[in-house]
Write a structure and sequence with these properties.
mainly alpha
Length: 275
C-alpha cells in the first residue's frame, strides 16, 4: 500500500496526524514562530494592551506578549502531557501484565493498590498529592501519573487473562519456554495494540488534567508560560482584558480537540473489529 492509497483510505488519521505534527513543530520552533519575541520580558508600560499589530494576542498585566507565551506554553503542555502518558503507559502495562500472568499474591497486591487508587476521584487525589509535594510541573506530572496508571494496569491484566490459558501458551510452557520468552513473544504483542490505542485517546484528557492543576495552583508556577496558569492569571481581568483568557483557552481547546480526534482515528485504524 503506497502513501497515496493509505491517505485516501485513512483520511481522518492522516489529517489529524498532520495537524498534531504541526502543533508539535510549532512548539519546537517557538523562537522562529514568535519572531524572537520574549515570553518572559515584562514591559509595564505595555500592560493589558489589546490585540494589535505589535502584539497580535495582546499583552498581560505585566506587559508580556501573550502570543509568545501561548506558543512557548505549547512546549510545557505537550512535554508534560507526553511524559504523563508515557509513564502511565509503561508502569500500568508492566504491572498489569505481571499481575495477569503470574496471578496469586502478586496479582492481589497490584490490583488492591489499583483499586485503592481508583476509589478516590482522580482530580481530587491528584490535587492532594501535588499539594503535599508542592506546586511545580514536575510534581503535577507525578501526581497525575500516580492516579492514572491503574486504568492501564487493569486493562493489561484483563487482556493477559484472556490469553493466559490459550493452547499455544500452554504448549509453550510444556515445551520448556522460559517465562521471559512467553511474556515477550505472546503476552506483550497481544496487549500492546489496545494499550497504544488507549494511550492515544488519553493525550487530550491528560493535557486537561495538567492544565486544571496549574489553573488551581497545583501545577506550573509563574512566570512559566503554561496554559492553565495563564488562564488563572487572566481570570481576574476577564472583563477588562478578556484576551488574557481567550487565547490560552483557545490553545487548549484546539490542541485537545486535535489529539482527541487523532486518538479516535488511530483507534479506528488499529481496531481489528473494523477490518
Amino acid at each position: 500500500m503506497n502513501v497515496i492509497t493509505f491517505a485516501k483510505k485513512n483520511k481522518s488519521l492522516c489529517f489529524f496526524s498532520i495537524a498534531a505534527l504541526l502543533i508539535i513543530l510549532t512548539a519546537v520552533c517557538a523562537p522562529v514562530v514568535t519572531g524572537g519575541i520574549s515570553y518572559s520580558e515584562a514591559v509595564l508600560k505595555d500592560s493589558l494592551q489589546p490585540p494589535s499589530a505589535a502584539h497580535i494576542f495582546g499583552t498581560d498585566k505585566l506587559g508580556r506578549d501573550i502570543f509568545a507565551r501561548v506558543i512557548y506554553g505549547a512546549r510545557i503542555s505537550l512535554a508534560a502531557t507526553f511524559t504523563v502518558v508515557g509513564v502511565i503507559f509503561l508502569v500500568g502495562s508492566v504491572l498489569g501484565i505481571l499481575a495477569g500472568y503470574f496471578g496469586g499474591w502478586l496479582d492481589t497486591i497490584i490490583m488492591r493498590i489499583a483499586d485503592m487508587m481508583v476509589s478516590f476521584p482522580g482530580m481530587i487525589f491528584a490535587m492532594a498529592i501535588a499539594g503535599v509535594m508542592g506546586a511545580s510541573v514536575k510534581n503535577a506530572i507525578i501526581a497525575v501519573s500516580m492516579v492514572s496508571w491503574p486504568k492501564y494496569a487493569r486493562l493489561a491484566r484483563s487482556l493477559v487473562l484472556k490469553i493466559r490459558h490459550e493452547d499455544y501458551v500452554a504448549a509453550a510452557i510444556v515445551t520448556g519456554s522460559k517465562t521471559l520468552y512467553i511474556l515477550i513473544n505472546y503476552m506483550i504483542p497481544n496487549v500492546i495494540p489496545t494499550l497504544i490505542i488507549t494511550a492515544a485517546t488519553d493525550i487530550g484528557g491528560m493535557m486537561l488534567e495538567l492544565a486544571g492543576l496549574s489553573f488551581l495552583g497545583f501545577g506550573a508556577k509563574a512566570p512559566a508560560p503554561e496554559w492553565g496558569l495563564m488562564l488563572n492569571e487572566g481570570r481576574q481581568f476577564i472583563q477588562n482584558a478578556p484576551w488574557m483568557t481567550i487565547f490560552p483557552g483557545a490553545a487548549i481547546f484546539v490542541v485537545v480537540m486535535v489529539f482527541n480526534l487523532l486518538g479516535d482515528a488511530f483507534r479506528d485504524y488499529l481496531d481489528p473489529r473494523d477490518e
